[in-house]
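Quick one - first record:
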Amino acid sequence: MTDPGRTLLVCAAALLEQGRTVDRLSRPLTAAALIAILFSQAIGTRLPWMLVGVVVLVAVAGLVEAYFAIRVGFDAALFRHLASASEPPDFAGTDAALTRLGVLPAATRDRPAEARVAGARRLFRLQMLSLVAQVLSVLAGGCIARSWR
């Protein structure tokens, strides 16, 4: 692989590693939403249905974010490994291994590095969008809770 290709993989890995920060911001919101769901049922308190809906939305967005965090983290590690290898990256061998693991559909094999990075960036954007949905849901829930006072 040429130096620009290797540099692309290094930069992509560095960008994707920021997904850990997104995940660290999302996890407490997800945990709080799940705890609120469990405790509201356990203590028998009837919350307004809109507030319950918001809490469920926060939890679902958090679980979606966790899924994307796993995918983004996997891509970051894979790009980092491919970029740091002493020999040129073996995309064909990597694709074969990923297909055997059931992670990569056969239809998406043999893509250039640019297409792989574009797909990983799309996953990272979806991860960030999931966090944004969580934060906006928390803010909406706060507005709803204030109006019920």
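second record:
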Amino acid sequence: MNKRIVIISGPTGSGESTITNLLTEKYPIFKRLITATTRKPRLNEKNKKDYFFFTNKQFQEHIKKGNILEYTHIKNRGVYYGTYKPDLEKKLKRGFNLVANTDYKGTDFYKKHYQAVGIFLKAESLAVIKKRLLDREPNMSGAELKKRLANAAREVKKEEKYYKYKVINRQGQLDKTLGKIVKILIKENYKLKK
């Protein structure tokens, strides 16, 4: 049986969004599962394209209605992230495979309910993560940068073990990283074409 959902996760600066975008461009059968969140949009982010942006109150209402299948609360940032059921069901009905970018709790949910395979993406070092974060947000404060780097180090240590595969996304080698992920998808019986 072909699998339908794959998880590509990693700490901030690992390149999970970039790799997900490359995969969905090269293999149109894959679509990114758009996450629901209560965080504010970053520069150029669009509602319903990058994330489903909700207020805390809206997010809680969606949980009560059963529209948020699983979620996590990032305490130190005061934000929620979760799976928005209407997006998931619509894309599966249309015959797409889904790429979910979630934490280890979401990964556990998808493994149990959708036989998903988890791929943990990481940079080769914290120095590379620092460069990527500053490239993405040049005006980030030193305190915020320090906090994000500490979070990234903690996520690698705490979460990596929950994933079947670990892939290092080396600086300047996106095509090689994508190639490794495609090999995993083939090995794990995901269809690459409709």
